[in-house]
Design goal:
Layout (H helix, E strand, L loop, with lengths): L4 E6 L4 H12 L4 E8 L7 E4 L2 E4 L1 E2 L10 E4 L3 H13 L3 E4 L15 H4 L9 E3 L3 H17 L1 E10 L6 H15 L31 H14 L5 E8 L6 E9 L5 H9 L4 E3 L11 H4 L5 E8 L6 E8 L3 H16 L1
Parallel strand pairs: 1-2, 1-6, 2-5, 6-7, 7-8, 9-10, 12-13
Antiparallel strand pairs: 3-4, 9-11, 11-14, 13-14
Helix pairs in contact: 1-9, 4-6, 4-9
């Protein structure tokens, strides 16, 4: 008989937490018991899992007794306090927040890219930033093919990356805008409806945002190469689900677009949609709800000898968050 596991989801009532629960069912993860956990604000709530309404429990220090995997998506302060408690209780804590990502003793993992890093875990494994996760899926086969000197990425990130409050704000503002109503931006620093905001997270003294620095540093850690030069500009766009990225890659040796296209086709978890004459390329609308990372607009950069341009789109709630966490657990079982 196959082993079954007790799985806790911390932040079970949030957007990513609910996605985790849906994916545990969709992927037929061997869950014997689901333990949905949240703050006292969610007391009395339930989550639906395999046809059963399960009561959400209030997170406390005793929540992880008998738990095999604890999936965290409730904010960095929660992970800081409770992930070590989960690990001490015997669970493997898989953390979707940024708190442990750059900790030298915590592996930062995208299973298709650096599954070997999982073996070094000491009870906590970090999930990368949603925009980083999809980018390294596209970078890895190119890195293996020709090496990478430099990456320049501009992101177009959906409001679901900011949680339910971001989704609600876009919907409310869009309705009010179309009906001539007035509103005040709350979740985002400016109006998001019919607008673009070139700021995700706070600005640092060097002019970059925290989100941009996350992409820069996490990419180097996941690929295991601190020599790669990375720069990023992250932009919030009025899309509900799905992050898009324009990625410019300078390789160490010259490769053709055809070689890159073939390498990406062989990459597990990547789907190439690249037929520009027929307007075939990925968009967030058609990739929402799908588990793969989609890549198109693959072409050689005309401005430098060893340059490749591509367009990368993925459901940020899935591969960018919930799916990647569950894949880490699957890799541990395997």
């Amino acid at each position: 008989m196959s082993k079954i596991y007790t799985v806790a989801v911390v932040g079970a009532t949030g957007v990513v937490g609910r996605e985790m629960i849906d994916l545990l069912q969709e992927l037929n993860f061997p869950v014997g018991r689901l333990v949905p956990l949240a703050s006292a604000r969610s007391a009395g709530a339930t989550v639906l899992f395999k046809g059963e309404n399960i009561d959400v429990q209030v997170l406390n220090e005793d929540s992880f007794k008998g738990v095999d995997f604890a999936l965290f998506s409730a904010g960095g302060s929660v992970s800081k306090e409770f992930a070590p408690i989960a690990a001490k209780s015997g669970a493997v804590a898989i953390d979707n927040t940024s708190y442990f990502r750059m900790h030298p003793e915590v592996p930062l993992v995208v299973p298709e890219v650096n599954a070997n890093a999982i073996a070094s875990h000491k009870g906590i494994i970090a999930n990368p930033n949603c925009s980083t996760a999809q980018m390294v899926m596209a970078l890895k086969p190119i890195y293996d093919l020709a090496g990478i000197e430099r990456v320049v990425v501009s992101t177009y990130q959906s409001v679901s990356g900011a949680g339910k409050a971001g989704i609600d704000e876009l919907e409310k503002q869009a309705r009010l805008s179309l009906n001539g109503g007035d509103f005040v931006a709350q979740k985002f620093p400016h109006t998001i409806a019919f607008n673009l905001i070139p700021q995700i997270d706070d600005f640092l003294p060097n002019g970059y945002t925290k989100e941009e620095i996350k992409m820069i540093e996490e990419t180097k850690k996941i690929l295991g190469d601190p020599t790669i030069q990375v720069t990023a500009t992250t932009v919030r766009v009025p899309v509900f689900v799905g992050h898009s990225e324009s990625i410019n890659i300078q390789t160490k040796r010259k490769v053709s677009a055809a070689e890159v296209r073939e390498a990406l086709r062989k990459m597990p978890g990547v789907i190439v949609m690249d037929d520009p004459p027929n307007s075939v390329y990925p968009t967030p609308r058609e990739t929402a709800g799908k588990n793969e990372v989609f890549v198109g607009r693959i072409r050689e950069d005309l401005s430098i000898p060893n340059g490749i341009e591509l367009w990368c789109v993925a459901d940020n709630l899935r591969k960018g968050a919930a799916l990647n966490a569950i894949q880490i657990a699957q890799a541990l079982i395997a």
